[in-house]
Design brief:
There is one protein chain. By secondary structure, this protein is α+β, with helices and mostly antiparallel strands. The chain is built from 18 helices and 34 strands. It has a six-stranded antiparallel β-sheet with strand order 10-9-8-13-12-11, with helices on both faces. A six-stranded antiparallel β-sheet has the order 15-14-19-18-16-17, with helices on both faces. Helix 2 packs parallel to helix 5. The protein is elongated and about 190 Å long. The N terminus is likely disordered.
């Protein structure tokens, strides 16, 4: 018996030393398993531990010998469940066991016996040692030795488990602190609000390892979904939610976090309606607070491991929300500072716009000074005047060149934008035009390609009196306008509309400018001494009488252009080949001069033949008369008359072979001498002759004085080619229809001017004056101003 006891003796010192040499659970469990396996050759040993006493479950920590552990059974099931219930040494013989009792063991041999030694710490079960014998039952001495092993192993394993729990808790705390530090560092890496919102949602998803994170922000007393990280088909970016309407709305209403871990919750059923893929089975929502004011809500959707959210997850979400709230607060401070700067600049620009009633200064201030607020490359403003949209100002341009293709293209685009009473905002990213209408896409694709711009924004200028014009901004950056910029533009447009309306009215009533100077002059006049005052009154009466009684010649003037009075095309009267040309371009010719000759031999032959037939017929008629043959004589007389006409026509055709000048003039056909040998058909033009003895001068007079013109009035012409010479003529025609010249409507007075020396040539330009009679001096000097004042008064008070 002593030998048998010594065979199962436990080397306490060595075993204890081995346990103390290792601090973790697994190494100590492995040492314990190996020590138990040495007590009886051929046995297998498995060491189990219970890691969470509140939710107990068996966890395999070590194996020694020929055994494998499959799926660990439920805590209360099988032989291990019996150990958990009794907390004492349990021994099973093969006859007492069924395969289901140890189904967790993966063995290929017949088991002779099973033994279980509970591991207790202060009467609390925290593990068990499982022994498997394939050859014999366990000796009683060995079981006694097992108690000694358990007494040494229990405190060692309990201490290792406590050590690991504390270490893991410390590591988890350190990891959590590191995560929070990383989050705070990432959140504070930018102060740009739009960029920060995307970062917050993304980092929430990474740290919490969830399917999706939704970030809702408070805007105008509602929640708006501004960022989504991950996949959540139950919401859409830009969606709004009122307080108490939905899960995020519940959080915004009471400011308390929400945790839903039951997939059958009514709120989840309402949210998942119509969505199967990616449906929400667990959700958390936490508030983002800034000085006790709600600024947003964060939603975390579905843990990636499939488990519902718990209190620890909610605690983590709450802590991250605090960090995110601080970052949002800093971003809001930056936005507030920028808004203050923008508002200060806006006040300065507004002061500049409203500080003057000069329309041109207001226009320049609107398109140029706004660049201090908005980063654009070109701004323009067009005003409606008499139903026509006119481009009035472009940034960086003191004067607008209407002939510039870039200006004409901009004007066309502003005319298109002015059709609508709504703002127009079109951008191009890569080759994509962000407008749903194909015709708009094609229009702006061509416009952007020509100008190099990638963004066009136009806003109508409208007040209670109607449309005033349109204001536009352009840039090569498609995203140069933010939401804040758009709000600023609308404020600026309102101020600009008021300033432009006032300046337009001020321009339309110019005598307001004279009101203050007149009052000052009146005060100075009344302050004069009486004699001087009477002298000035007498002078004013004299001037008035002069203006009313004394006549002065009145003339209307305008730009003059010389045109030919008459031109003629010299044409061939018969068919023929040009035999000779006697003229060249620029030759002066007289009426009847021979210009060219055609080959005439065939026409001479025709004339000779006609004359011969005529002579023969005349002789026959005379013979019949001498013989008193009345019948033959009558027949021949008719023939003689016909042939006489033929001779006349032949002579006429022969004469037409000589081409003569129809009137005095100058030849204007180039290279006419090269027409020799050319065949001309009847009516073909040989040359063109322009009359030079007289010319017609077109004088373009403004439409407001056109009614003074009459036919027969005398006119004086001064040409640029003859600055020291004056040509005089008579008005023959006043055009019944106006023409557009230099953006002004004019009527043309055609003046017939003698040109005996041919000095005046078509195309010459100059200035013309038409005398319209004698009129009182006041009418002559102030007619234009009086008509302008009358038209304005009629437009205001007309009937």
């Amino acid at each position: 018996m002593a030998a048998q006891r010594s065979a199962f003796a436990v080397p306490v010192a060595e075993f204890a030393a081995a346990l103390l040499s290792r601090a973790e659970v697994v190494p100590r469990a492995q040492i314990t398993a190996e020590q138990v396996a040495e007590l009886l050759p051929g046995i297998a040993v498995v060491v189990y531990m219970i890691e969470d006493l509140e939710n107990p479950a068996w966890t395999r920590k070590a194996i020694a010998g020929d055994v494998e552990v499959g799926e660990v059974p439920r805590f209360e099931a099988g032989t291990l469940g019996t150990v958990a219930e009794n907390k004492t040494l349990m021994v099973y013989e093969s006859g007492d066991l069924q395969r289901e009792d140890y189904a967790h063991l993966d063995v290929r041999r017949t088991i002779a016996a099973l033994a279980y030694i509970p591991l207790l710490a202060d009467e609390v079960l925290f593990g068990a040692i499982e022994l498997v014998s394939y050859e014999q039952p366990f000796p009683a001495a060995m079981l006694e030795a097992l108690r000694e092993v358990a007494e040494l192993a229990s405190p060692a394993l309990a201490g290792a488990q406590s050590y690991e729990s504390e270490r893991n808790a410390s590591l988890q705390s350190i990891s959590r602190v590191a995560q929070m530090y990383d989050l705070e560092k990432v959140f504070n890496s930018t102060l740009e609000m739009e960029e920060l919102l995307g970062i917050i949602a993304k980092k929430f998803q990474e740290v919490m390892n969830v399917q999706s994170v939704n970030l809702w922000m408070v805007k105008n007393d509602t929640l708006e979904l501004v960022s989504i990280a991950g996949f959540d088909p139950t919401v859409e970016l830009g969606q709004s939610q009122n307080a108490g309407d939905g899960i995020a709305g519940d959080v915004s209403e009471n400011g308390e976090p929400v945790l839903i871990d039951d997939s059958a919750d009514e709120r989840l059923g309402k949210r998942n309606a119509g969505h199967e893929d990616g449906a929400v089975f667990s959700i958390m929502a936490g508030p983002l607070m800034e000085h006790e004011n709600l600024v947003g809500v964060v939603e975390a959707i579905n843990r990636m491991d499939g488990a519902p959210f718990d209190d620890d997850d909610q605690f983590l979400l709450t802590n991250i929300c605090e960090t995110a709230s601080n970052a949002l607060h800093n971003a809001n401070l930056l936005q507030s500072e920028r808004k203050v700067e923008i508002l200060q600049t806006l006040v300065q620009v507004s002061a500049e716009i409203t500080s003057t009633l000069n329309l041109d200064r207001v226009l320049q201030a609107v398109v140029n000074h706004t660049q201090a607020i908005i980063s654009f490359e070109r701004a323009a403003i067009a005003l409606e005047q008499r139903g026509v949209l006119q481009l009035k100002a472009v940034s960086g341009m003191a004067q607008i060149n209407s002939a510039d293709p870039a200006i004409s293209g901009l004007k066309e685009m502003l005319e298109w934008a002015s059709i609508s009473n709504e703002e127009t905002h079109v951008t191009q990213h890569d080759d994509q035009i962000d407008d749903p209408r194909p015709e708009t896409q094609a229009k702006f694709a061509a416009y952007f390609s020509t100008t190099g711009m990638r963004a066009f924004y136009a806003l109508p200028l409208i007040d209670d009196q109607g449309r005033l014009g349109v204001l536009s901004f352009e840039s090569s950056d498609p995203d140069f306008l933010t939401v804040a910029h758009l709000e600023i533009i609308k404020v600026l447009a309102g101020q600009a509309t008021v300033a432009l309306r006032n300046a337009s009215l001020y321009r339309e009533v110019p005598f307001i400018n004279l009101l203050e100077p007149l009052l000052q002059r009146k005060k100075r006049f009344l302050a004069m001494e009486k004699r001087r005052r009477w002298l000035m009154v007498a002078l004013a009466v004299a001037v008035s009488l002069f203006l009313i009684i004394c006549p002065l010649p009145m003339r209307v003037s305008g730009e003059a252009t010389v045109a030919s009075a008459r031109t003629a095309q010299v044409q061939a009267g018969v068919d023929g080949v040009v035999k000779a040309v006697n003229i060249r371009e620029g030759d002066q010719v007289r009426q009847g001069d021979v210009l060219a000759e055609l080959e005439d031999w065939n026409y001479r032959a025709d004339l000779a033949a006609a004359e011969a037939k005529y002579g023969e017929a005349l002789e026959t008629m005379n013979r019949a008369l001498s013989q008193n043959d009345g019948t033959l004589a009558g027949t021949e007389r008719a023939r003689v008359d016909y042939l006489r006409a033929e001779v006349a026509r032949a002579k006429e055709r022969l004469e037409h072979t000589t081409i003569r000048a129809p009137f005095d003039g100058v030849v204007i056909t180039p290279q006419v001498q090269n027409s020799v040998g050319r065949r001309l058909n009847h009516g073909d033009t040989l040359a063109e002759i322009m009359e030079t003895s007289r010319v017609t001068v077109d004088v373009a007079v403004p439409e407001d004085v056109a009614t003074l013109l009459k036919r027969g009035e005398r006119a004086s012409i001064k040409l640029e080619s003859f600055p020291l010479r004056t040509f005089r003529g008579e008005v023959t025609v006043v055009s019944p229809e106006s023409q557009l010249a230099s953006e002004q409507r004019v009527f043309v007075a055609r003046v017939n001017v003698p040109n005996p020396d041919g000095a005046m040539r078509p195309g010459m330009q100059g200035h013309g004056k038409v005398s319209v009679g004698w009129h009182p001096a006041g009418y002559v000097l102030f007619r234009g101003s009086a008509m302008w004042v009358w038209s304005k008064l009629w437009s205001w008070f007309g009937w």
